[in-house]
Amino acid sequence: MSLKPISHSLLFLVVSGMCFSLNAASLRDPTLPGAGSTSTTSATVKVDKTLTLNSVVIKHSGAFAVINNEIYKKGQRVQGVKIVQIGKDTVSLADGRKLTIFKAITEIKGQ
Predict the structure, then answer these.
(1) Is the pTM of this model over 0.70?
(2) CA separation for the pair 95, 89 (Å, rounded)
(3) 100-111 pLDDT, tens digit each
(4) Structural domain tally of the chain?
């Protein structure tokens, strides 16, 4: 059985079109993020719970603590946790955590 020349051309176009669509399907969209990236939404953004006690100031008017570069006083909340006590180099929180100033910063060498 012999195919007509027009049938050969039609067959060639159909096979070529199938190959092209297979190649196109295997190509990666260049606008998508890389393989190791993750996407987050505002509802799933992870909040950093690390609290750093930067300094403590005790005056006649009361004690103030600088935590994560923000000023707080006893009774206020930091990241939703109430500050229950401010000492000369520590801050106690209602959830049981105790923040301490890094001693190497507050002490003068040799004293």
Answers:
(1) no
(2) 18
(3) 987 655 556 655
(4) 1
Tell me the per-residue pLDDT of 57-109, one tens digit each, with 9 for 90 and over.
999 989 999 999 999 999 999 999 999 999 999 999 999 999 998 765 555 66
Q: Name residue, tokens 């690390």.
A: 50
Q: How far apart are CA 74 and CA 87, in angstroms?
A: 10
Half-sphere exposure of 106 (CA within 13 A, CB side): 12
* CA 69, chain centre distance (Å): 19
Considering the domain boundaries, does residue 74 fall inside one?
yes
The answer to whether residue 43 is domain-embedded is no
Expressed as residue numbers, the domain containing 98 is 53-106
Half-sphere exposure of 59 (CA within 13 A, CB side): 5
Tell me, yes or no, whether 101 lies in a domain. yes
Say what the pLDDT of residue 71 is. 94
Return the structure tokens found at 80: 């939703």
